[in-house]
Amino acid sequence: MSSRHRAVVTGSLVTASFSAVMILPCTAVADGQGPASGNGGKAVDQAPAGVKLTTTLPERISVDNSSQKTALTAVVKNEGTRESGDIRLLVVGFDGLKVNGVRGCDAVAAKDLPAGSNSAFSCPVGALGAGASKSYAVDATFDLGKTGKVCLPVQRADGKKTYWQQGPVPFGTTNPAPDAPATPLLLGTDNKPAGPAGDQLPRTGAGSGVLPLGAAGAALLAAGAAGVWWSRRWPRQGS
After folding, report:
1. Binning pLDDT at 50, 70 and 90, where does residue 33 land?
2. CA pair distance 201, 203, nearest whole angstrom
3. DSSP string covering 91-143
4. CB 31: neighbour CB atoms within 10 A?
5. Cα 54–55–59 angle (5° rounding)?
6. pTM for the complete prediction?
Protein backbone atom coordinates (compact mmCIF):
# COMPACT_ATOMS: atom_id res chain seq x y z
CA MET A 1 0.00 0.00 0.00
CA SER A 2 1.48 3.32 -1.03
CA SER A 3 1.76 6.20 1.43
CA ARG A 4 -0.23 8.34 -1.02
CA HIS A 5 -3.17 6.00 -0.94
CA ARG A 6 -3.11 5.85 2.85
CA ALA A 7 -3.35 9.59 2.93
CA VAL A 8 -6.33 9.51 0.60
CA VAL A 9 -8.25 7.12 2.79
CA THR A 10 -7.37 9.02 5.90
CA GLY A 11 -8.61 12.22 4.44
CA SER A 12 -11.74 10.51 3.26
CA LEU A 13 -12.72 9.23 6.66
CA VAL A 14 -11.76 12.40 8.45
CA THR A 15 -13.42 14.93 6.16
CA ALA A 16 -16.64 12.99 5.90
CA SER A 17 -19.40 13.85 8.37
CA PHE A 18 -19.02 12.17 11.73
CA SER A 19 -22.01 10.13 12.76
CA ALA A 20 -22.82 7.90 15.64
CA VAL A 21 -24.81 4.92 14.59
CA MET A 22 -27.02 3.06 16.99
CA ILE A 23 -27.54 -0.50 15.91
CA LEU A 24 -30.37 -2.48 17.41
CA PRO A 25 -30.06 -6.23 17.58
CA CYS A 26 -32.67 -8.43 15.97
CA THR A 27 -34.84 -7.95 19.03
CA ALA A 28 -34.42 -4.18 18.92
CA VAL A 29 -36.71 -1.74 17.17
CA ALA A 30 -35.47 -2.30 13.65
CA ASP A 31 -38.90 -1.70 12.14
CA GLY A 32 -39.01 1.94 13.22
CA GLN A 33 -35.84 3.01 11.45
CA GLY A 34 -37.56 5.41 9.09
CA PRO A 35 -36.28 6.42 5.65
CA ALA A 36 -32.72 5.69 4.57
CA SER A 37 -30.08 8.40 4.21
CA GLY A 38 -26.68 8.81 2.58
CA ASN A 39 -25.70 11.44 5.19
CA GLY A 40 -21.92 11.78 5.46
CA GLY A 41 -21.16 9.88 2.24
CA LYS A 42 -18.63 10.79 -0.42
CA ALA A 43 -16.85 9.24 -3.40
CA VAL A 44 -13.16 8.44 -2.91
CA ASP A 45 -11.38 6.53 -5.71
CA GLN A 46 -12.88 6.70 -9.18
CA ALA A 47 -15.23 3.80 -9.89
CA PRO A 48 -15.24 1.97 -13.25
CA ALA A 49 -17.11 3.70 -16.07
CA GLY A 50 -20.87 3.38 -15.65
CA VAL A 51 -20.62 2.37 -11.97
CA LYS A 52 -21.91 4.60 -9.17
CA LEU A 53 -21.73 3.02 -5.71
CA THR A 54 -23.41 4.54 -2.66
CA THR A 55 -24.61 3.44 0.78
CA THR A 56 -27.45 4.38 3.09
CA LEU A 57 -28.23 4.07 6.79
CA PRO A 58 -31.58 4.54 8.54
CA GLU A 59 -32.36 8.13 9.54
CA ARG A 60 -33.28 6.92 13.01
CA ILE A 61 -32.72 3.93 15.27
CA SER A 62 -33.63 2.98 18.85
CA VAL A 63 -31.41 1.82 21.68
CA ASP A 64 -32.79 -0.29 24.52
CA ASN A 65 -31.96 1.68 27.65
CA SER A 66 -31.42 -1.40 29.82
CA SER A 67 -29.57 -3.76 27.46
CA GLN A 68 -27.96 -1.09 25.23
CA LYS A 69 -28.89 -3.27 22.26
CA THR A 70 -29.76 -1.77 18.89
CA ALA A 71 -30.05 -2.82 15.24
CA LEU A 72 -29.86 -1.13 11.87
CA THR A 73 -29.83 -1.89 8.18
CA ALA A 74 -26.84 -0.94 6.02
CA VAL A 75 -27.51 -0.80 2.27
CA VAL A 76 -25.05 -0.67 -0.62
CA LYS A 77 -26.39 0.40 -4.03
CA ASN A 78 -25.16 0.63 -7.60
CA GLU A 79 -26.89 3.65 -9.10
CA GLY A 80 -24.92 3.35 -12.33
CA THR A 81 -25.63 1.72 -15.69
CA ARG A 82 -23.07 -1.11 -15.53
CA GLU A 83 -22.29 -4.00 -13.19
CA SER A 84 -19.94 -3.00 -10.37
CA GLY A 85 -17.46 -5.84 -10.53
CA ASP A 86 -16.49 -7.72 -7.35
CA ILE A 87 -16.87 -5.39 -4.33
CA ARG A 88 -17.14 -5.56 -0.54
CA LEU A 89 -18.79 -3.46 2.15
CA LEU A 90 -17.19 -2.72 5.52
CA VAL A 91 -19.24 -1.86 8.62
CA VAL A 92 -17.15 -0.12 11.29
CA GLY A 93 -18.09 1.03 14.81
CA PHE A 94 -16.52 3.87 16.81
CA ASP A 95 -16.68 5.06 20.42
CA GLY A 96 -19.97 4.09 22.12
CA LEU A 97 -21.24 2.17 19.08
CA LYS A 98 -19.93 -1.38 18.84
CA VAL A 99 -20.84 -3.63 15.93
CA ASN A 100 -21.46 -7.14 17.28
CA GLY A 101 -22.50 -8.85 14.08
CA VAL A 102 -23.51 -8.32 10.46
CA ARG A 103 -25.48 -11.11 8.84
CA GLY A 104 -23.45 -12.82 6.11
CA CYS A 105 -20.23 -10.97 6.97
CA ASP A 106 -16.93 -11.77 8.70
CA ALA A 107 -15.46 -9.99 11.73
CA VAL A 108 -12.23 -8.07 11.15
CA ALA A 109 -9.48 -9.22 13.53
CA ALA A 110 -8.63 -6.81 16.35
CA LYS A 111 -5.09 -6.34 15.02
CA ASP A 112 -6.49 -5.18 11.66
CA LEU A 113 -9.06 -2.69 12.97
CA PRO A 114 -8.61 0.91 11.85
CA ALA A 115 -7.17 3.20 14.51
CA GLY A 116 -9.89 4.59 16.74
CA SER A 117 -12.47 1.94 15.90
CA ASN A 118 -13.70 -0.77 18.25
CA SER A 119 -15.23 -3.25 15.79
CA ALA A 120 -15.62 -3.97 12.07
CA PHE A 121 -17.12 -6.53 9.72
CA SER A 122 -16.31 -7.25 6.08
CA CYS A 123 -19.20 -8.15 3.76
CA PRO A 124 -18.50 -9.79 0.38
CA VAL A 125 -21.06 -8.11 -1.88
CA GLY A 126 -19.91 -9.67 -5.15
CA ALA A 127 -20.86 -8.05 -8.46
CA LEU A 128 -23.75 -5.61 -8.04
CA GLY A 129 -25.81 -5.11 -11.18
CA ALA A 130 -26.89 -1.72 -12.50
CA GLY A 131 -29.70 -0.38 -10.32
CA ALA A 132 -29.31 -3.21 -7.82
CA SER A 133 -28.83 -2.97 -4.06
CA LYS A 134 -27.98 -5.29 -1.19
CA SER A 135 -29.03 -4.92 2.45
CA TYR A 136 -27.22 -6.09 5.58
CA ALA A 137 -28.77 -6.52 9.03
CA VAL A 138 -26.43 -5.10 11.68
CA ASP A 139 -26.60 -5.98 15.38
CA ALA A 140 -24.86 -3.64 17.77
CA THR A 141 -24.74 -2.12 21.23
CA PHE A 142 -24.67 1.59 21.98
CA ASP A 143 -23.36 3.01 25.23
CA LEU A 144 -25.67 5.98 25.78
CA GLY A 145 -23.10 7.48 28.14
CA LYS A 146 -20.90 8.17 25.10
CA THR A 147 -21.09 9.41 21.55
CA GLY A 148 -21.11 6.75 18.82
CA LYS A 149 -20.31 6.61 15.12
CA VAL A 150 -20.52 4.21 12.22
CA CYS A 151 -18.69 4.08 8.89
CA LEU A 152 -19.51 2.24 5.64
CA PRO A 153 -16.63 2.06 3.11
CA VAL A 154 -17.36 0.33 -0.23
CA GLN A 155 -14.23 -1.16 -1.77
CA ARG A 156 -13.06 -3.29 -4.62
CA ALA A 157 -12.96 -6.86 -3.34
CA ASP A 158 -9.16 -6.81 -3.04
CA GLY A 159 -9.35 -3.61 -0.96
CA LYS A 160 -7.07 -1.66 -3.30
CA LYS A 161 -9.69 0.95 -4.13
CA THR A 162 -12.35 2.60 -1.98
CA TYR A 163 -15.14 3.78 -4.26
CA TRP A 164 -17.41 5.27 -1.60
CA GLN A 165 -17.38 5.93 2.11
CA GLN A 166 -20.24 6.98 4.39
CA GLY A 167 -19.05 8.35 7.71
CA PRO A 168 -17.85 8.05 10.33
CA VAL A 169 -21.35 9.39 10.96
CA PRO A 170 -22.89 9.87 14.44
CA PHE A 171 -26.18 8.67 15.75
CA GLY A 172 -27.48 10.44 18.82
CA THR A 173 -30.06 12.57 20.58
CA THR A 174 -29.98 16.03 22.13
CA ASN A 175 -32.94 15.08 24.34
CA PRO A 176 -32.06 11.85 26.20
CA ALA A 177 -34.83 9.89 27.91
CA PRO A 178 -33.08 7.69 30.50
CA ASP A 179 -36.35 6.64 32.17
CA ALA A 180 -37.97 5.45 28.93
CA PRO A 181 -37.67 1.84 27.70
CA ALA A 182 -35.70 2.98 24.65
CA THR A 183 -33.96 6.07 23.33
CA PRO A 184 -34.52 7.07 19.68
CA LEU A 185 -31.40 8.29 17.90
CA LEU A 186 -31.06 10.36 14.73
CA LEU A 187 -28.40 9.94 12.07
CA GLY A 188 -26.00 12.87 11.89
CA THR A 189 -26.69 13.97 15.48
CA ASP A 190 -24.06 13.96 18.22
CA ASN A 191 -25.29 12.11 21.28
CA LYS A 192 -25.91 14.02 24.51
CA PRO A 193 -25.34 11.45 27.27
CA ALA A 194 -27.71 11.46 30.23
CA GLY A 195 -27.76 9.62 33.54
CA PRO A 196 -30.73 7.95 35.26
CA ALA A 197 -31.92 11.31 36.60
CA GLY A 198 -31.44 13.07 33.29
CA ASP A 199 -28.18 14.67 34.34
CA GLN A 200 -25.47 14.87 31.72
CA LEU A 201 -22.70 12.39 32.22
CA PRO A 202 -19.05 13.29 31.78
CA ARG A 203 -17.82 12.54 28.28
CA THR A 204 -14.99 10.21 27.54
CA GLY A 205 -12.18 11.89 25.69
CA ALA A 206 -12.26 15.53 24.66
CA GLY A 207 -15.32 17.09 25.27
CA SER A 208 -18.29 19.25 25.60
CA GLY A 209 -21.78 18.28 24.57
CA VAL A 210 -21.01 18.07 20.87
CA LEU A 211 -17.82 16.50 19.64
CA PRO A 212 -16.23 19.37 17.68
CA LEU A 213 -14.48 18.74 14.41
CA GLY A 214 -11.24 19.93 15.96
CA ALA A 215 -11.43 17.50 18.86
CA ALA A 216 -12.60 14.79 16.57
CA GLY A 217 -9.50 15.38 14.57
CA ALA A 218 -7.26 13.55 16.98
CA ALA A 219 -9.61 10.64 17.52
CA LEU A 220 -11.13 10.55 14.07
CA LEU A 221 -7.98 11.45 12.27
CA ALA A 222 -6.88 8.08 13.43
CA ALA A 223 -10.26 6.72 12.47
CA GLY A 224 -9.97 8.48 9.18
CA ALA A 225 -6.57 7.12 8.54
CA ALA A 226 -8.11 3.79 9.16
CA GLY A 227 -10.47 4.13 6.26
CA VAL A 228 -8.13 4.54 3.40
CA TRP A 229 -5.34 2.84 5.32
CA TRP A 230 -7.64 -0.12 5.33
CA SER A 231 -8.22 -0.17 1.65
CA ARG A 232 -4.51 -0.60 1.12
CA ARG A 233 -3.13 -2.45 4.10
CA TRP A 234 -5.87 -4.76 5.28
CA PRO A 235 -6.44 -6.62 2.01
CA ARG A 236 -2.90 -7.96 2.19
CA GLN A 237 -3.98 -9.93 5.20
CA GLY A 238 -7.02 -11.29 3.46
CA SER A 239 -10.62 -10.16 3.44
Report:
1. low
2. 6
3. EEEEETEEEEEETT-EEPPGGGSPTTEEEEEEEEEEEPPTT-EEEEEEEEEE-
4. 9
5. 135
6. 0.72
